[in-house]
């Protein structure tokens, strides 16, 4: 029997509600597929921890977390207490870099029972993945200000792309596309306007393509691609993008499928030299936190992606199938939360999914 | 009688078709409102010119164009003949910087008779403007490569924001919002991830806001904002954004309203130290060029924005009204082009609008 050690970090706001609600479904799936999970909860990476310790993480966080096979993460951010740049750069963005989680993988998929804002689209029509570079690019934090406070004040911020950094995420995206039936990869660029870094990205996309002759590749400028997501979301299979472009596309995609509130994201270290981290796309949602009405589906979908990453695709698919079954029942027959027009609570919806497993 | 000197530059591809088709409606409007237009055509800023001269523009282009009150521009780009970075940086992007056209203004508006990809939206629901910084920011072209061709190859590209550059576009956006009934300004940022330049942008938005106490301001990270465009496009009035974010939003907005093929853009020098330039959002469209089926509405809408900029809002509104009337007739009664499900030609549709003027 395989045993996996999972670090569970609820974080802030609704993270503290959806994480517990997701565990029952996760454990039911593990039991059904003969997997042993050892779950260990941590209170750091939260505003509460920060209030008590003045830092987001304990000194030994890296050594502590390295011992785990994966991290199930809720949400971080509580601006009323900790400024965002401290909470995010002090936890989530730090995890991504330290643990070389260089792929951020986000599915965009029409789900049964979920209303898409796009006219005339039905489940099956839209089902693609965004592969986002997750450690460098536009998020470099290199730069600064000069002539501060004067009329000639100037601010510089560097985008940094490295051969290693670009190639490894491209390889992941090509390999992923190569395993899917459509074998279609779309690259997001803006080489006509961002004339140094993005042409480099394009070159590496072309170079890597030589190792994947079976993958059909196309390329859109990010402005046109954002428009395409709205106009022809059915045309995509795997979309690969830089850190910033991937950030935009992986919110826009789920917005188009109506799943922004329930979409998962996987921060993956494909080389498995450190744990990967699974967090829903929604944030800590201060506006609804503490009311027990947050939708736990994003967190459960994260648990499914985690099982896939741990090498158990059948278990992952089974759990996601349970989610789809419950969504398909609709608010009349399933305890869906208010965002899905139901009157269920976080715990009830989590339980309903667990029961279907 | 006011006289205006207009430089007319058709450029490439369908630019050469939609520009002529727009002039009849423009001239009819001018006649009706007692404006004298002197139109002067130019063949530069095109692949043809490049083939003949090896440059996109003649040596004296700047002095030549400075003598005009405005530039009506078609489209530039014909990658089969000239690489995009040469044609764009050699004309359009050069105009923007040289003539300090620091505002790129793009309306996002549901039009009668035009199908939006969003479910359940009707004309009147969506009507906002994107104000894009148009000369600096992410389009700096400062940077380079080091360790080329090796495993440690690294590429840097600088985002450059200046106090002058940021403040002047923000001032324009605030003033514009202040004149509109809703007095609502939305700023696009990404200060949680792009941690040097975007916090500076946020600071300047806040500082400029002190001079406009009547304007309600909010702020979205670009990922969330892209999603909001799809989910709640009715919530916007004026949206201000950096060069890159504005580029993305001003394609995404018209995609949401179904008007990507007919949307205009105005590259404005608000200080009137040089001519402003009006070009449709659609490009040169090599795939349909030369067939006489391109939609001239974007170009006509540009002419309307030009009249507005020249100080004739009534004439501008009248021309746009004629466009809306013709669109509202639908493909049964108006010679709409194939993109609008009609069988009309470029010339026929241009003529139909001119007749309504
Ligand atoms: C062609 C390209 C360089 C240009 C831009 O990004 O500015 C275009 O997309 C636009 O929006 O006018
Ligand atoms: C919170 C923010 C820094 C983060 C990002 O931009 O990476 C978030 O938007 C995400 O996509 O995970």
From TrEMBL, chains A, B:
SUPFAM superfamilies: Isocitrate/Isopropylmalate dehydrogenase-like. Residues 5-353 form the Isopropylmalate dehydrogenase-like domain. This is D-malate dehydrogenase (decarboxylating). It comes from the Bacteria. Belongs to the isocitrate and isopropylmalate dehydrogenases family. Its EC number is 1.1.1.83. Keywords: Manganese, Metal-binding, NAD, Oxidoreductase. Its cofactor is Mn(2+); Mg(2+). Gene3D superfamilies: Isopropylmalate Dehydrogenase. It holds the Pfam family Iso_dh. GO terms for molecular function: D-malate dehydrogenase (decarboxylating) (NAD+) activity; magnesium ion binding; NAD binding. It catalyses: (R)-malate + NAD(+) = pyruvate + CO2 + NADH.
């Amino acid at each position: 029997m395989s045993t996996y050690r999972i670090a569970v970090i609820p974080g802030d706001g609704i993270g503290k509600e959806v994480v517990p609600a997701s565990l029952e479904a996760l454990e039911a799936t593990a039991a059904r597929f003969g997997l042993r999970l050892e779950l260990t909860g941590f209170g750091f990476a939260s505003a509460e921890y920060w209030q008590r310790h003045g830092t987001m993480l304990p000194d030994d966080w890296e050594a502590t977390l390295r011992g785990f096979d994966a991290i199930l993460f809720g949400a971080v951010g509580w601006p009323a207490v900790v400024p965002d740049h401290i909470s995010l750069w002090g936890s989530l963005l730090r995890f991504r870099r330290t643990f070389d989680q260089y792929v951020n993988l986000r599915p965009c998929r029409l789900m049964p029972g979920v209303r898409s804002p796009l006219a005339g689209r039905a489940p099956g029509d839209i089902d693609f993945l965004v592969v986002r570079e997750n450690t460098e690019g536009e998020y470099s934090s290199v730069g600064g200000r000069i002539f501060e406070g004067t009329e000639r004040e100037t601010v510089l911020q560097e985008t940094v792309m490295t051969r290693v950094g670009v190639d490894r995420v491209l390889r992941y995206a090509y390999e992923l596309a190569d395993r899917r039936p459509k074998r279609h990869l779309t690259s997001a660029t803006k080489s006509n306007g961002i004339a140094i870094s993005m042409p480099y990205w394009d070159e590496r996309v072309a170079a890597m393509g030589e190792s994947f002759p079976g993958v059909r590749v196309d390329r859109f400028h990010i402005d046109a691609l954002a428009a395409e997501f709205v106009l022809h979301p059915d045309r995509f299979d795997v979309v690969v993008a830089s850190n910033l472009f991937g950030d935009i596309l992986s919110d826009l995609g789920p917005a188009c499928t109506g799943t922004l509130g329930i979409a998962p994201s996987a921060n993956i270290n494909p080389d498995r030299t450190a744990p990967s981290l699974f967090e829903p796309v929604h944030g800590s949602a201060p506006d609804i936190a503490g009311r027990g009405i947050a939708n736990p589906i994003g967190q459960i979908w994260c648990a499914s992606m985690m099982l896939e990453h741990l090498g158990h695709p059948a278990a992952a698919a089974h759990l996601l199938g349970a989610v789809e079954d419950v969504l398909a029942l609709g608010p009349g027959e399933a305890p869906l939360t208010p965002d899905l027009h139901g009157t269920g609570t976080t715990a009830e919806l989590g339980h309903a999914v667990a029961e279907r497993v």
